[in-house]
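Known limitations

C-alpha cells in this collection are predictions and should be treated as such. Users comparing against experimental data should check residue numbering before alignment. To illustrate the layout, the record for dipeptidase E is reproduced below. The input appears on top and the generated C-alpha cells appear beneath it.
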Amino acid sequence: GSPRRLLLVSNSTLHGGGYLGHCQQHIKSFLGEKVKRVLFVPYALHDRDAYARTAREKFESLGYGLDSIHESCDPVEAVRKSEAIFIGGGNTFRLLKALYDNSLIQEIRKRVLEDGIPYMGSSAGTNVATISINTTNDMPIVYPPSLQALGLVPFNINPHYLDPDAKSTHMGETREERIRQYHEEPDTPPVLGLREGAMLLVEGDKATLQGVTGARLFLRGKKPTEHEPGTDFSFLLTDSN
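Generated C-alpha cells:
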C-alpha cells in the first residue's frame, strides 16, 4: 500500500466565503496535530509575496506555521525538510514551469509517495498532483518543458468543473465537450470533474469525494457519470482504467 496522503481541493475560495474557508475543517483533520509547519508553493501567481501572506494568515489561524518556498535559497532542500506541502491555485502552466525550473518534480514525488508527507492542492495545485495538466482550464501563458505533472494519482482532474448552462446563449464548447475531445486522443486517463466546493481525499489506496458539491467522472469511451459527496473513488487509483 502507498503511504500517500492527499487533499485535492477544486477551488480555494467559495462564493460568499474567505480564502480556504469552505475547507478549513477538512484541512485541520487532514494535517492533524503532528504537522507543525506547512511548506507553501505560490508559483501559480505572479505576486508570490502577497500570495504567501494570504496563505500564512489562513494557516496560522488554523494553528500551523507556514514557510513559502519562494523565500528559500534552496527550494529542493526546503521540500526535503518539509512536514507537509500545500500548492495553491493560479495559472497551472506558470506553476508547472516553475516546478520544473526549480527541479522539484521528483523531489515532491519522493516526499509524498515514498515518505508519506501530506500534500494539499487547490485548483492549479490539484491539477499538478495528477498525471498531466492537459485538462486544466488555464491559458498557456508560459511554456513548461512538459505537460506531465507530479503523477501523485494515475488520473486527471478538472477543477472548477462547470455544468452547461441551459439558459446560456454561449455557443463555445462546454467543459464536458472539451473533456470528450481530450478522450478522443488515445490512451488518455480518466478525468474527474470536481465542482467548486468539492475535494478528493486520498489516503493510501483509498480515495473519497468530500465537500458540499458532487463530481462528474469521465472515462474514455463511456458516458460520464454523476457522483455525490461520500463516493468511494478508490478504483481510480489502480492504473488499469
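For this record: The chain has a mean pLDDT of 94. The chain has one domain: 5-236. Please report discrepancies through the issue tracker.
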